[in-house]
Amino acid sequence: MGFINIGRRKKPETDDADLDFIGDTSALVPVVRKERHAFAERLIELGLVKPDAVDAAIQEQKVTRERIGAILVKNGFLSQDVLIPAILAFKADRIATERVNSSRVPVDILDRMSIIISAETDTTIYVGTMSDEQAVRNIIAEHYPEKEIVFVAFLAENLPDFLDRMRRANSFLEADEDTRPDEMLDRLLYDALNQGASDVHIEPRGDSYAVFFRLLGERRLIHMGTIEEYNTIAAQIKDRGRMDLAERRIGQDGGFQLEHSGRFVDMRVATVATVDGEQVIVRILDPDAVNPSLDSLGITRINHWRRGITRQNGLCLICGPTGSGKTTTLNASIRELPRFSKKIYTVEDPVEYRIPYVGQVSINPQVGLDFPKAIRNFMRADPDMIVLGEVRDADTARNAIKAADTGHLVMATLHTGSIVSALSRLRDLEVDAYELRYMLRAVLVQTLIRTICKACEGAGHVGSHICPSCRGTGYSARTVVSECQSFTDSAEVDRVIEMTSPGYKASGPMPWPEMIDDAIDVMARGDTSIDELRRVFGSLADERVLERGLDPEAHALKIHQLR
Predict the structure, then answer these.
(1) pLDDT tens digit sequence for 46-90
(2) CB 185 within 8 A of CB 216
(3) How far is Cα 66 from Cα 32, in angstroms, rounded to an integer?
C-alpha cells in the first residue's frame, strides 16, 4: 500500500485492504479504490441499499476508515444476513477476513481440526478448514443442524486469534477452577447472546445465586452457583456499568458495550435491592435484533401500516403489551423512511437502540425533560416526523395531536390490545373525537408468539440429542401476530369511534381481521401450536379455533406425538 509521508505524520492504522492513501501538500487523504466503489455500486444495482445511504457511508469511511459494508450494517441500511452473500458474490475470498465472536463447536475440536468459522447468518454458516471437508461438515452439522454449511478460504494466520476469541467466549457453564475471574462475566454475556436472550437476571439466594435468561419471552433457569461467584460477577457488572460498587441499599442504573460478531451490543443494567440481596438485571440491546425490514416481521396487513406512515401528516399508533415487539416495529418503520430527506426526532424513556441520522432524546425528569416538553422542543426544530416512545398522559396526547394537526407525521405507542381500545385510550386521555377523525392515519396492534423449531419440527430433540437450535423447547423464534387498519377519510374513523361509545353492541365481525384470527392462521400453516396460542390468548384461543371449524386437540396431539 503506497503513501507519502508529509512532515511527521504516520500512516493511519487500518486493516482494510481496500483503502489506499495519497499525499498532497497538507495531509494524508484517504482515497477509495475502484474496487470499493464497484462493491458499493453492486449493492445499489441489486437494490440492497439506496444511493444516498452509500454516499453517506463513503463520507463516513473517510473519517472512520471502516469498511463500506460494516458502516452500512452499523447504520441500519443493510443487514448482516444480506451483506455476507453480497461479499461472497462480489469477492468470495474476502469472506475469510470476517469475524465471529462465538461458536457452538467446542474449542478443542476447532483447534484439533483447524476450523475457522468466518461468518454466520440466520440460515448459513461459513467455514474454513485445513482438514477433510466431509469430516468437518459432519462436525458443524451436529452443532448447527438448522444451517446450510458453506466452505470458504482458510487463512492459517487467523487461526490463533480465532481460537483465542472462542476460548474467551466459551460457555459460562463450562467454567472451571482455571477460569480467570475476569472471564466469568464475558462468558455469561456471550452465552446469553448466543442463545438469543433478551435479558439476564442474576439473583442472590442466601448462600447461592441463580442466573435466568429470558428466551423468546420466557424466563429460564440457566445456572446455580456460589455466593462468592455472584459477588465477583455482580461487582464486574457494576464496575463496567459505572455504578457505585458500595451502594446496595437502593436500585441503580448503568450500562456498557460488548463486542460481538463484529458489532457492539449495548448492555443496560439495573439493580434491585431485595431482602435476599442485590439482584442484577442486564437488558441486552442487540442492534441486529431490531434491524429487520418491516416485511420480515410477519405483520399480515403491512400495506395498511405503510399507507399510514408514508402520509405527510397525521397520527399513526403502534399498540400492544410490554414485550410485544413494538420497539422493533417502530425502529423498522423509521429505518424504512427517507432519513436524509426528512428530519426525524424521537423521544423515549430511555433511548434503547440508536438509529443513525435520527435525532433521539431520552427523557430526564431530573432536569424537567418529559415527553410534552420534548415535543414542544421538536416543534421549534424543523421536524418532518416525531416519534413518541409512549403516550402516557393527557398532556403528551394533546401535544402529539397538536403536532399532527400542524403538518407533521407523528408515530407513537400505546399499551392497548386492540384497535378499538386504542381509540378508547386516547379518549380517556382527553383527545376529542373531532381531532381524531381528521388526524388518525393507521393503527397497528401486535403481540409476539413463538414459532415451532424447523430443525426438530417442534419435537425438542434430533435423534437422541437435545435440539441445539431450540435447546429442547420445540420453539426457536417468534413472529408478530397483529391487527392493522389504515384510515383514508373521516367517515372510516367515525365508525371506529362509534365502537368506543358506552353500550355499543357489535352487529357483526370487525371491519378488519382481529389479532386472534391472525394467530390462528399462523397455527393453521403449521408455524405454531395450539399450546402457544393458549399461553398468549387463554381460553379465547380454543373458542375461536372451534368457530373456525378447526380441531385444537388434533394440533396439540401432533406436537405431543413428536415429543
Answers:
(1) 888 888 888 899 899 889 888 888 888 878 788 777 888 888 778
(2) no
(3) 11
244-252: long-range pairs with CB below 8 Å, 24+:
248/273, 248/277, 248/278, 249/273
Strand partners, 345: 359, 386
Residues written for the chain: 563
N-term to C-term CA, the chain = 59
Beta bridge mates, 209: 204, 225
How far is 335 from 313, CA to CA, in rounded Å? Answer: 18
| Dist. CA 534–CA 542, nearest whole Å | 7
Amino acid at 79: S
Query: Please, are residues 99 and 128 in contact by the beta-carbon 8 Å criterion?
Result: no
Question: What are the Cα distances from residue 242, in Å, to 220, 228, 252, 562?
Answer: 28, 21, 10, 48
pLDDT top residue among 102 and 361:
361
Q: Which helix or strand (DSSP H or E) is residue 140 part of?
A: helix 133-143
Q: Write out the DSSP string of 159-182.
A: HHHHHHHHHHT--GGG--TTS-HH
Find the DSSP H helices in 297-393.
302-309, 326-336, 371-379
**Within a 13 Å sphere around the CA of 357, how many CA atoms are in the beta-carbon half?**
21
Tell me the backbone φ, ψ of residue 200, rounded to 5 degrees.
-120, 125
Buried b (16+ CB within 10 A) or exposed e, 239-260: ebbebeeeeeeeebebbbebeb
Annotate 368-416 with DSSP letters as a single string.
TB-HHHHHHHHHTS--SEEEES---SHHHHHHHHHHHHTT-EEEEEE--
* Contact predicate 396/372, CB 8 Å: yes
- For 12-36, write each residue's pLDDT tens digit: 333 333 433 333 333 333 434 444 4
* 2 close to 20: Cβ distance less than 8 angstroms: yes
CA distance 20 to 94: 17
pLDDT computed for residue 209 by the predictor: 95
pLDDT of residue 423: 93
Helix (H) / strand (E) element for 448: namely strand 440-452
Q: What is the DSSP letter of 12?
A: P
Are 459 and 563 contacting, i.e. CB atoms less than 8 angstroms apart? Answer: yes
Show the CA angle centred on residue 58, arms to residues 53 and 62, nearest 5°: 145
Residues 176-189 have a mean pLDDT of 73
Which of 160, 137, 158, 161 is CA-nearest to residue 147? 137
Say how far apart CA 289 and CA 33 lie, in whole Å: 33
Buried b (16+ CB within 10 A) or exposed e, 104-125: ebebeebeebebbbbbbbeebb
- pTM of the full structure: 0.77
Residue with cell 449493492: 43
Sign of CA dihedral 377, 383, 389, 392: positive
> Which of 114, 119, 80, 71 is CA-nearest to residue 99?
119
C-alpha cell at 421: 381500545
Contact 12, 27 (CB under 8 A): no
pLDDT digits (tens, 9 = 90+) for 492-502: 999 999 888 87
